[in-house]
Protein 1
Amino acid sequence: MATDVDMKTLLEAGAHFGHKTSRWHPKMAPFIHSKRGGSHIIDLSQTVTRLQDACKFLQQTAEKKQILLVGTKKQSQDIVKKLAADTGMPYVTERWLGGMLTNWNTIGGRIKHLKDLEAKMESGELSHKYNKLEVQRFQEEIDELNRLYGGIKELNGRPGAVFVTDMIADANAVAEATKLGVPVVAIADTNVDPSKATYPIPANDDAIKSVQTICDAVGTAIASGKTKTAKEGDK
């Protein structure tokens, strides 16, 4: 698919502003247009091309598999939560817990425990067996488990891809996905190693408008893939 995001849209979102030249990663050199005021400027023509490639891949992946959306940095949390809500995909916006992908048996066990507690709370089983203080403690446990695992309650094991909004803040997510051979789509600012992502998207990963613009395109691609699957299922 071709994304509707063009250079003008990215420019207005501030996607071209990289980090200070002293903080750059040499492997980002092919994606850097120039230097301005001591900072690198990202080549937005490359951003458009890479974003199109990433969106095409995400659309195809979403036709059959889940895509795990990751954005634990403050600027990205609300954007990623909305992206997950709009696409029905699993997400992580709190701290990435070690083993979320590579130790799924343990993580899956915690999610099962959470679902069991929620079912018992909803059915009234806990309030029937325990006093108000004890029920309150169960509710607090449910709330904490939801904070940590709520976004991946419906993750069916290994996802088809992982989308990351910040490769440094969420380096552990990138590392675990890579270890399992799960493709990584990621926003790549001038201070990261883009080779760690299967589909790096060179862009400012700090500016909210930049992240939002990229995520909007990603959301459209995922929704398109899911819609195609739904239509084929209706035939």
Protein 2
Amino acid sequence: MAIRKRCINCGAPVSTNGYCTECRLPDSFLRKAQNTSVYHYNIALDKAKIRDISGAIDSLRTSLRYDKKNIEARNLLGLMYYEIGEMVDALNQWVMSINYQARDNVAVKFLKNVRDDNKQLGEADNIAKMFNTALDYAESHSFDLAVIQLRRCVSVNKHFVKAYLLLGLIEYEQGRVGKAKKTISRVLTIDRYNPTAIRYLREMGESEGDIVRNKDEADEDDLFDEDYYGVSAATEDGKRPAKKIEPPERPKSGESLLNRRYKRLNRAKMSNIYVLVGVIIGIAVFYLLIVPVKDKNRKRDISKIESSYSEKLASKNAETDNLNRELDALQAEIDGYKNSEAKLNEDKAGLEKKINDLQQLIAEYKEKLPEENTEETTTEEGESTEEGDTENTEEAQNEKYDVDGISDTDVDQMIDNE
């Protein structure tokens, strides 16, 4: 007995028409979505190996959009969140993973390790509170207090990307451009292709080469070597009095961040731009010259395949029409035989009825013949023997014939002929 296919959504049997008997979803679409989910998971895995955390998170979200029960993708997404300091999001993904599959799930080990480390849970809670407090300070333009909270966050969790990004923005707002670049470059050592960090550095006037160089030079141990932001340098008596930090002057009208960036451009940066422009031109030439030729060849191959398929389809249709015509002719012949058989059965029934009637008539005539012979013998008593002999001869002849002049032999022959 063949094993029936099971629905990958609810586990119910799949009917012969390809639809689940319970959830009524098409099995082919579900399997296609599952394959797409696995495809995006493999892409995310490759990105995670090169520390493209942001790209891996986007691919994993796409994978889970196609199949929310992809346990490997959900566990990897939790690890990516954990790597960038998002402890709450990581725990959410692992808990959902266990709800979908409780046995043979590595997420159980992850949650057990986090649960056994009470210090880690406490630090995650404190980091969230400090980051929210820093956001409130930044909105109220209390930048010195916000920076204190953010530096406490990154001192506890040195992979907290959001804290680095917000700290870099505040430092840039306060005019500490070099320090802001170094802080944001620290993000790229955690998430190599973080789009937000790259955009911030570009807005600060960094070229692609400078971004790569700053990323290689960034070191988490050197991040806190400078004076604590918001505190003056130590005096002779060893004290570190607090200092008031004034925000830098806003650029005058007509002067923007882009204008200031262009003023700082040098020849090395321009050469990088030229190289980038050359690469873009090469890519454009590739797509304008080579890709159309490939598309043309591909379309020609497709047209050939379509024409051959049309010819085969036409021949098959002709064969089908011939077979249908032969089938109709055979069916008509069968119907004719059936009608002939029915007519023969009717004729046979009529002949049998006629034979039965003739047999009844013969029986009646045979019953009447003895009575007539008796009457003639009584009325003709006294006649001569000669006349009696003649009459007996005539009676013997009459016995051979019925009233209509048909003998028994003729009747038997008629029955045999019928």
Protein 3
Amino acid sequence: MTAKIYYDKDTTLDPLKGKHIGIIGYGSQGHAHALNLKDSGLDVRVGLRKDSKSNAKAQAAGLKTDTVEKVAEWADIIMMLAPDVAQRDIYDKEIKQHMKPGKTIMFSHGFNIHFKQIVPPAVVDVSMIAPKAPGHRVREVFTEGSGVPMLIAVHQDASGHAKEIALAYAKGTGGTRAGVLETTFKEETETDLFGEQVVLCGGVTSLVKNAFETLVKAGYQPEVAYFECMHELKLIVDLMYQGGMNYMRYSISDTAEYGDYTRGPRVIDANVRKSMEKILGEIQDGSFAKEFITEIREGGTNFLAMREKEKKHQIEQVGSDLRGMMSFIEKPKDKGAY
């Protein structure tokens, strides 16, 4: 089955003209969506806590801000871009009462809808535009005249125009310049969680740490281990990003390529594949979501302990010192806040 992909020619901004668009949150994605929509000539306001430090940032960028409740009352289209763990409380306390017929509530990730943490009334449209890039990249490429690929999904089409509105929103944020792929809330949520846990975050960090620890235990200098197992990872990922695995293999040495074919499958073997399948099952049956939601609602003690432990890992200490000497590396950006 071929995926349906939409581009600039497939939509216009007309469904958004005369509409009020409320962006809830001004973090990584929030600032990008709000500024891109504003630059597209649309009527945007940002909803934030009264004491949020992001109020000053948004206002300095030329955006209007107000409390979440007032923005939710004002807006025809509400995009939820506060952190996943905060969205249910925000919705219940400040948005739910303003979900009137004809309104649209949107998400950039399907977690809270798919796992029924948020259940909007049947009289509103529920849709998703999910950029496949961090918010700072969404903003950066938009200002350069391009865009990042995005996903579109409709969970509830009360008006009969939910898809048109979502596509127009994607156009306003730059997504249709690159391509907007049609999916469902279920598919986006489950594949996103799987990718994060098994490859992009969990898999990569565990692979890097274990390789680093293996070299250090064998008596090699931590600094050399850092360069070989972490620093150079970007070079390989950039090659794959640019031209796929074959281009990466074309670009590296024959020695590295041979090691790829013969040793890689020994590291990521059938047992790892079984673990991946088990993790996918936990995502599909909702047990991961239940575990995560319970952890956060009980104060996140284990989550915060794991965060602090990882900050103290030797690879982080060595890496911090080495990166401090690399003037060519851009300093990490502030995520912003709700």
